[in-house]
């Protein structure tokens, strides 16, 4: 016989007289979970960093996602609200800082868009391009990792502004989509170019006014040689550096002086105040079909390991920077939204493995909830299998990742 059981639990030791819980937490059911390149940084122990907090081995990882509010003690959220923001890779999460959540007001677009074009990648592209780069009609724009969730949007923003746009990507298929689907004027496969400086001179013969940098390293060094006087560089990410023991140094920084180039890094959460303005700009373009967003669909939290292997082997076909894992659409979850999208996990090969396992967590408002969670445990580097449990990383993936 099965019964449900409610419990009153002592959460922690106290001093003085006990008080009623005055927390303003929000209990949510996670519908879509996003995986983004920055998560790679959190999968290693980060020292002296007041910006990011490393993942805790044995605990669910966190990331951006879309969720439905099941219960709330916060005045700004009520049961049934749809939100996006930081949550955990699990079926249900208690958000103790709901001020970071953004309520979804527009549901005439796919919910998955709030992990991409209408979520963190979207506001990143918007702020980095318009606020940092101050684009003008007729300028020349180059974007590295242009097929990623941020890059593909920056390219389209640039075209809407009247700029000439060139992008780099890692396969012929992605290059073709940049030109034929996303409207880039030109694109090239950086893996086929032995001389990046020569490649940029070939594809950007008039030079570069704006460089939206997602990779850093050798590409940034080559771009500096091809920047026009007064050029602007938005430093959004350093994908080429995340797996290196020692970061690569620049050989051409003197170009910053000679050409009076402005290079500026940015963190997206400093621009969240622009989100309403961003929505006002981009939603009409989406509804009118002027903005295209490519996303690949894969069902279930447990599909993450297979998507990870796709990324590491270079087989991922759609958006690399953000793919989402929807919560499994169980029979008893009648309010679940249709499953959509998939994800990869850029993981540190040296210190972690991923373990998929059932878990039970005490519900903050009585009772318990069951679900799947994704946790990290400090072990010798192993990669997940495509089923629950763990499996050793095959050597071929190590060599591809090096």
Can you offer a commentary on this structure?
This protein has helices spanning 39-42, 120-133, 149-161, 172-180, 196-203, 217-226, 254-258, 275-287, 304-312, 395-401, and strands spanning 26-35, 62-72, 82-88, 92-95, 102-103, 140-143, 164-169, 186-189, 208-213, 227-235, 262-265, 323-326, 352-362, 368-378. The protein is α/β, with parallel strands linked by helices. Strands 1, 2, 3, 4, 5 and 12 form a 6-stranded antiparallel beta sheet that branches. The chain has a 6-stranded parallel beta sheet with strand order 8-7-6-9-10-11. It has a two-stranded antiparallel sheet with strand order 13-14. Helix 5 (196-203) packs across helix 6.
Helix content: 10-25%
Q: Helix/strand/pairing class, anyone? A: alpha/beta
Strand portion? 15-25%
Strand runs, count? 14
- Rounded average pLDDT: 78
What is the 3D form?
A: elongated
Q: H/E series, N to C?
A: EHEEEEHEHEHEHEHEHEHHEEEH
Largest sheet: 6 strands, antiparallel
What distance separates the N and C termini?
53 Å
Low-confidence stretches: 317-402
Count of helices? 10
Alpha carbon gyration radius: 22 Å
Descriptive key words:
single chain; 402 residues; alpha/beta; six-stranded antiparallel sheet; six-stranded parallel sheet; 23% helix
